[in-house]
C-alpha cells in the first residue's frame, strides 16, 4: 500500500503547527445532536421527519422516511420514479484537508448506498470556512478540501454542481447527494426477517483513532494514559488506516446488495453501530430484533476505548463513526457469498457481525462481544489481523482446529433452518456466528463446524462463544486481559 | 395587516434578554464569503461549480450551471427530465425563531423560483444548534424554527423529508430544495436580449433593517448615530416589514415568469442586488449589460445606509439581502403587465428597476439611482410610499403630472424598438424607466409620457432622470438632502 504522505503545513507555506482539526471543538460524526434529544425535538414538532403515511405508488408501498434512515424517498410525478436524497455535514476530524474533503463526500454518498442506490445524479457541497483561518490558511485549505470532495465524487461517478459557502467559527464540510431512480434501483431498508444475518463493510473505531492521534500530537494527559498500551507507531498506523477507510466508497457494497437480495441496510455514522442498528430495526415491517455479536475494530482501538473508560462507547456500540460501513441485513444463505464477493471485487474484508431474530424492534450488542482486530495490509486492503503467535494456546479439545487463514464457517443444519423453533437448537442460534476470511466463495457451502460452548477464564461472566480457530480464542483472551488490566 | 406579536422570550420561560440573533456574529446573507474570494477559490480548483461543458439533451442545449446561479440543472437519464436543486443556509438575523425558520425556508425555495420552477418535490432541513444555547433555549427555539421552516414549506406546497442537525457555535438554519422537471417547467436564466427590462419583486434593505433594529435594542453607538434621522417606531416598523418581506414566497413571481415570457432571473441574497445582477449578466448568451436605475428600499433604510457611510452598500447595490426578491429579465412589452399581474394576485408591488442594453456582460447601477421608499400598508401589502406632502414642489413644467397613484408608464416609440441602433434615441434608452403603481393592467398600453431631463439642484452631478410625477421628484430631492446632510 502506498501510504499517503502526511499533510505537511510548511510545504504549503503554513505554520508548522497548523492543524485543520483545531478549527472545531467537535469532530466528524461526534457533532451529531444526541438521537434522544433530536427525537424529542422532532416529537414536539409533531411528525416532521418522522415515519409518515405510506404512499401508494405503482403497485408498491413506499413509505416516506425521515430521521430514522439516512435518505428520504419521495415518489415523483413521473412514471414510477422516486427522488432519493440525503445530506450530511460535520467538522474536520483529520488534518489532511484533501482527505477531509474525500471523507466528507464519501460520508454523504454512503447514505444513498445504504438504500442500494449506486448512481448519484448530483451532489451539492456545503462549506463553512472558519472565520479563524488566516487568509493564507483559507487559500490553501479550502481548495484542497474542495478538490478532495470533487475527486471523491468523480470516483463515485457523479459530479458536484452547486452548494453553499459561509463563514463559520468552525470549519465545516459536507454535502447533499441526490438520485432519481426507478423502483428496482433502490432497496427499501425495512424487509429484515428472522434468520437474516447482519453484515458490516468497514471496521469501527474511526473516531477513537482520530482522537488518539490528536492526543499523541498534543502529548496530552490522555496520551500519557493510553501510551501504556499502544505505541506511537500503532496510533499513527490506525489514524492512517482510518483515514483511508473513511475515504472509501460503499459503492461496491451497495451494488452487491442487489445481487445478494439484501433486506435493508443503513450506514454507520454519528450514532455508532448500535445507534444505527436501533434506527434500522425500528423501521422494520416484521417483528424482529438485531443481535450483534462481533465488533470488527481498527487494530488497538478496542484497547484504547477500554483504557479510556466512558470516553468512547466503542464496545457498547455508541462511539461515533464517520463515513462508516454499511450495516446490511442479508438472507443467511447470501451473507457469506456477499462477503466473499466484496472481497473479490475490492480486496477488503466484510464481517458477519450478528443476526436478526424474532422480537420487538430492538437492537443490542451481546454482553461480551467478540472484538475482531482489523488493519490495512501492505497491499492496501483492509483485513482482520491474522493470529501471529501460538503461545498460551488454551487447552480446548472441542474447538475445531483449521489451518490458519482458511475458511471457518458454521452453517446451521438444514433441520434448524426449517424448524427455527426447535427448542434446544434455537438457544444456540444467537451464538452462531459466521466469519469468512480470505475464502473463495466456492468453499462456503461445504465447511461446517461444530458449535462449541467455551468458558472464558478471565471473564467474570460465563459466556457461550463459538471458536472457529484456537488462535482466535487466544485473541479473545488477550481482549479479556485488556479488560482486566484497566 | 395583523402584526405578529413580537417574540417574547419570557412567554417561553426564557430570560427576558434572550435574543436569537446573539447566537451568531454574522447575520443572514451577510455570512456569504465575498464573491471575489469565492471565485478565486473556485478558480484554483479549476472548474468546479463553474460553467461547464454544455450537455445535449433531447434536442435542447442545457448548460450545467453552478455558482453564478442559484440552482443547478442536471439532465437525468429519464426522458427529458431535469434535476434542479439548490441549497442555502445562514445564521439568524431576526429574533423570532418561528419567523427565522420561515425565512430560511423561503430563502432556499427562492433559488428554485428564480428558475421559474414552481413545484418543489422535496426539502431537506439543515440545522446547527448553538452549542451556547441553554438546554431550555434549545428546547424552545429549535422546535419553533423547525415549525416555521415546515409551515413555509407547506405554504409552498412541498414537504420536508430529511436533513442534518449538528451542534455549532453559531445557530445555523437552512435547507435544500429539489425539483424534477420537464423542460417546459423551468426557464434557463440566460436569454436576456437588449431592450429587455429588469423587474424586482421585493424591496431591498432587509439587512439594514435588521442591523438597525439590533442597534436600537442595544442602544449602541451606532444607534446614537442613526437616531438623528429615524425614530424608534420607524426602525421597529421597518424590522417588522422586513421580516414579512423575507418570509414571503417568490412563488407567484415564478409562476408569472412563464406567462410573461421571462428571459431569465435570479434571486437577490448575500451579494446584494448588484452582485446578483453581475452573476446573472455573466451567464447571458447574448452580449448584454444590465443597467439599474431604481432602488426600491424598505422605508428609511436608504437614509440609514447613507448615514452609516460604508457600513452597508445599499445604494451601491452591495448590501447583503436575505430571502430577497427575484430580479427578472422580461421583454419590455411584458414587464408592466407582469407587475400588474403580481399585484393583482398577491397585492404586493413589483418594480421595474432597470434595463438590458447591448454590452459586454457587466451590470451597474447608475451614478445617482432613484430610491423608491417602500413600506407595508395596513392591509399587509407592500407598496411604494405614496407621496404625502406637496410643499416644495419644484417648478418643473415639462414633467407629466398625473393623478397620484395613477399609472405612469413610458413606452419606447415603436421606431426605437425596431431600430435599437438609432443613435439619438438610443442615448435616451438608459433613462427610460417605467414604473407601475396600483394600476389596472388595461391601462398600460395607452399611457405614454415624455422623457424629460431634470437637474437635481442638491446634487453635485448633473443627472438625467425621468419624472413621472412631481411628487416623486420632491421625494428625490429629499433623498439628495440626506446625502448632503451626512
From TrEMBL, chains A, B:
CDD domains, sorted: SelD
Keywords of this entry: ATP-binding, Kinase, Nucleotide-binding, Selenium, Transferase
Stretches assigned to the PurM-like C-terminal domain: 194-361
Catalytic activity from the UniProt record: hydrogenselenide + ATP + H2O = selenophosphate + AMP + phosphate + 2 H(+)
First-level EC class: transferase
Family matches, as InterPro entries: PurM-like_C_dom, PurM-like_C_sf, PurM-like_N, PurM-like_N_sf, SPS/SelD
UniProt domain PurM-like N-terminal: residue ranges: 72-178
Keyword Nucleotide-binding: yes
EC number: 2.7.9.3
Gene3D superfamilies attached to this UniProt entry: PurM-like C-terminal domain, PurM-like, N-terminal domain
Name the UniProt record assigns to this protein: selenide, water dikinase
Natural source organism: Clavelina lepadiformis (Light-bulb sea squirt)
Lineage: Eukaryota, Metazoa, Chordata, Tunicata, Ascidiacea
Amino acid at each position: 500500500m502506498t501510504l499517503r504522505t502526511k499533510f505537511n503545513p510548511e510545504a504549503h507555506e503554513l505554520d508548522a503547527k497548523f492543524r485543520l482539526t483545531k478549527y472545531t471543538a467537535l469532530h466528524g460524526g461526534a457533532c451529531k445532536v444526541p438521537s434522544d434529544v433530536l427525537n424529542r425535538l422532532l416529537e414536539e414538532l409533531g411528525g416532521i421527519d418522522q415515519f409518515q403515511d405510506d404512499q401508494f405508488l405503482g403497485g408498491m408501498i413506499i413509505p416516506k422516511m425521515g430521521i430514522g434512515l439516512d435518505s428520504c424517498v419521495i415518489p415523483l410525478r413521473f412514471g414510477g420514479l422516486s427522488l432519493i436524497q440525503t445530506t450530511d455535514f460535520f467538522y474536520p476530524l483529520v488534518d489532511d484537508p484533501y482527505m477531509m474533503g474525500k471523507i466528507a463526500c464519501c460520508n454523504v454518498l454512503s447514505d444513498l448506498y445504504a438504500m442500494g442506490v449506486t448512481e448519484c445524479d448530483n451532489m451539492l457541497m456545503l462549506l463553512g470556512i472558519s472565520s479563524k483561518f488566516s487568509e493564507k490558511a483559507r487559500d490553501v485549505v479550502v481548495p484542497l478540501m474542495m478538490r478532495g470532495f470533487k475527486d471523491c465524487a468523480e470516483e463515485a461517478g457523479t459530479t458536484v454542481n452547486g452548494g453553499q459557502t459561509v463563514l463559520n467559527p468552525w470549519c465545516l464540510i459536507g454535502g447533499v447527494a441526490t438520485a432519481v431512480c426507478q423502483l428496482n434501483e433502490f432497496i427499501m431498508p425495512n424487509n429484515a426477517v428472522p434468520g437474516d444475518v447482519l453484515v458490516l463493510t468497514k471496521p469501527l473505531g474511526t473516531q477513537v483513532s482520530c482522537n488518539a492521534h490528536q492526543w499523541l500530537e498534543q502529548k496530552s494527559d490522555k496520551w500519557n494514559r493510553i501510551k501504556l498500551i499502544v505505541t506511537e507507531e500503532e496510533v499513527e498506523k490506525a489514524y492512517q488506516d482510518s483515514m483511508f477507510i473513511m475515504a472509501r466508497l460503499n459503492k461496491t457494497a451497495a451494488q452487491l446488495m442487489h445481487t445478494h437480495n439484501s433486506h435493508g441496510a443503513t450506514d454507520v455514522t454519528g450514532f455508532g453501530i448500535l445507534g444505527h442498528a436501533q434506527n434500522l430495526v425500528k423501521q422494520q415491517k416484521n417483528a424482529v430484533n438485531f443481535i450483534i455479536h462481533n465488533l470488527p475494530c481498527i487494530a488497538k482501538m478496542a484497547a484504547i476505548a477500554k483504557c479510556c473508560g466512558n470516553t468512547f462507547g466503542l464496545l457498547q456500540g455508541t462511539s461515533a463513526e464517520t463515513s462508516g460501513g454499511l450495516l446490511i441485513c442479508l438472507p443467511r444463505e447470501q451473507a457469506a457469498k456477499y462477503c466473499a464477493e466484496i472481497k473479490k471485487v475490492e480486496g477488503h474484508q466484510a464481517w458477519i457481525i450478528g443476526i436478526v431474530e424474532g422480537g420487538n424492534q430492538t437492537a443490542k450488542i451481546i454482553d461480551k462481544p467478540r472484538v475482531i482486530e482489523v488493519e490495512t495490509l501492505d497491499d492496501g486492503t483492509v483485513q482482520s489481523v491474522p493470529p501471529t503467535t501460538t503461545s498460551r494456546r488454551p487447552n480446548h479439545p472441542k474447538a475445531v482446529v483449521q489451518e490458519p487463514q482458511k475458511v471457518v464457517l458454521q452453517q446451521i443444519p438444514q433441520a434448524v433452518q426449517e424448524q427455527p423453533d426447535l427448542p434446544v437448537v434455537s438457544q444456540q442460534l444467537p451464538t452462531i456466528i459466521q466469519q469468512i476470511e480470505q475464502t473463495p466463495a466456492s468453499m462456503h457451502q461445504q465447511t461446517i463446524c461444530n458449535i462449541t460452548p467455551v468458558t472464558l477464564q478471565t471473564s467474570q461472566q460465563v459466556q457461550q462463544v463459538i471458536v472457529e480457530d484456537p488462535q482466535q480464542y487466544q485473541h479473545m483472551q488477550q481482549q479479556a486481559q485488556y479488560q482486566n488490566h484497566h
